[in-house]
Amino acid sequence: MDKDKAVMMGLMVDEIKSFKHELLNENIKIIDNKKKINFSRKREIPFDPLKNIILNFDKKNLFHSNRIDFSANYHNNDQCFVTYCSVGGGFIEKKVK
Q1: Which of 71, 74, 13 shows the shortest CA–CA distance to 42?
Q2: What is the pLDDT of residues 41-75, one digit of tens each?
Q3: Sequence-distant (≥ 6) Cβ neighbours of residue 84 within 8 angstroms
Q4: Percent of the chain scored above 90 by pLDDT?
Q5: Are 10 and 16 in contact (CB under 8 A)?
Q6: Labelling 58: which of 3, 4, 24, 67 has CA 20 to 30 A away?
Q7: Could you give the 3-state DSSP secondary structure of residue 12?
C-alpha cells in the first residue's frame, strides 16, 4: 500500500519538533483504521491516505519541481489551495490561491 508517511505526519503536527518519531507506525495504523487524521492535533477530519494523497510523478511543466500542493474542500463548498516549495537552504516558500 503506497502512502506518504511524511505528508501524514506533517498534517498531524504544527511543528516537526513536537513529532514523536517512535509513534510513527502507531499513528499510521490509526489513520488507516479510522480513515481520519488529527489535523494539527486540533481537529479530527476524514482522511484516507489512498484517496487523499496523490503523488504526481508524471506531471510536466511544474513551476517548481520540489513542491507539495494542498487542497481543502469545506462543507459550505468553499475551497482552499496552498502550495509549499522548497527553495533551498531549509527555506520554504508558500503560495496561496
Answers
A1: 13
A2: 888 999 999 898 888 777 766 777 778 888 888 88
A3: 67, 68, 70, 92, 93, 94, 95
A4: 14
A5: yes
A6: 24
A7: helix
